[in-house]
Amino acid sequence: MKDCNGVEQVALRVPRGASARVSLLGGQVISWRNERGEELLFTSIKAIFKTTKVVRGGIAICFPQFGNCSALEQHGFARNKMWSIDYDPPPLPPNGSNGKVFVDLLLKPSEDDLKCWPHCYEFRLRVSLSMDGDLALISRIRNINGKPFSFSIVYHTYFSVSDISEVRIEGLETCDYLDNLCQRERYTEQGDAITFESEVDRIYLSTPNVVAVLDHEKKQTFVIRKGGLPDMVVWNPWEKKAKSMADLGDDEYKQMLCVAAAAIERPISLKPGEEWTGSLELTAVPSSYCSDH
Ligand code: BG6
């Protein structure tokens, strides 16, 4: 399967009907549907499909940096690179993908890439769908350099929501956060849950491994489970910023919310030969499920 620019996409589907699509551009998950065929991830109607630029929406991989803190491009280069299918990946620990359908992707630096970021690595990404329709991403990054390097990583996840004003995030209360709207100044979350009535652009720190996004209008909850990723980015551009973005519709900020598992505050360091593993698992359940369990 290919997109309108000829970029290859891999489709995953399980017998009960849930499905996902993964683009080789950026290793980006660009669709995740439940068994009723409803799309769970947001993609902008103004998304620009190019062969060298990530699409506004889905789940993009930000690596090796988040933001634009160095000379590298914003959120790192991995999301704008062409990945390849890894037909013979090293095995994952037992039970890693039992009973799931999955695809393995691989990113390695080209000669040109090494001029921008002079570190040799292998970035393996497994995207899988369980029989119940849960979506999982497992990243393995190996240092195949002669010297250590460090990196940040974010699974930049755009959830599709009914109306941002009807959404709240639970699990981040009392966490410290860096506010990107105030030069990354540090604050402590005071609310019982995070709700939205203006632009929010924060990096929550040392967050719990399970966080929930509750959509009251849809009566649906996204449960986010993560491993190896202590931080969590929460972003909604709101009206003014949305209007300034070429690849986002003026009102589309109402239908999206980025809640992104990340390792930012303390970059991950790898010595030669070392490997790091990080995981994200997303489940979409009816809201009543969460209050009953
Ligand atoms: C968010 C950042 O995660 O990504 C925002 O916190 C940024 O500051 C947003 O504007 C979108 O970034 P980009 O590069 O995909 O337009």
What class, by secondary structure content?
mainly beta
Nearest-integer average pLDDT: 95
Q: H/E series, N to C?
A: EEEEEEHEEEEEEEEEEHEEH
Distinct small molecules bound, one entry per kind: 6-O-phosphono-beta-D-glucopyranose
Low-confidence stretches: none
Task: Give the overall form.
Answer: globular
- Strand-residue fraction? 35-45%
Total DSSP helices? 3
Roughly how many Å apart are the termini?
39 Å
Q: Could you say how many structural domains there are in total?
A: 1
The total of beta strands comes to 18
How would a crystallographer describe the biggest sheet? 8 strands, antiparallel
**What is the name of the CATH architecture?**
Distorted Sandwich
How is the largest sheet built, in terms of strand order? 5-6-7-8-18-15-14-10
Description:
The radius of gyration is 18 Å and the shape is globular. A hairpin with a 4-residue loop joins β14 (210-215) and β15 (220-227). Helix content is 6%, strand content 42%. The protein is built from three helices and 18 strands. The chain has helices spanning 111-116, 238-244, 287-292, and strands spanning 9-13, 19-23, 29-33, 59-62, 84-85, 101-107, 121-129, 135-143, 149-160, 167-170, 176-179, 185-188, 200-204, 210-215, 220-227, 231-236, 256-270, 275-286. By secondary structure, the chain is mostly beta strands. The strands form three sheets. An eight-stranded antiparallel beta sheet has the order 5-6-7-8-18-15-14-10. Strands 4-9-17-16-13-11-12 form a seven-stranded antiparallel beta sheet, with no helix packed on it. Strands 1-2-3 form a three-stranded antiparallel beta sheet, with no helix packed on it. The protein has one domain (9-292): Beta-galactosidase, Chain A, domain 5 (Distorted Sandwich). Bound molecules: 6-O-phosphono-beta-D-glucopyranose (BG6). The site of 6-O-phosphono-beta-D-glucopyranose has 8 residues, from β16.
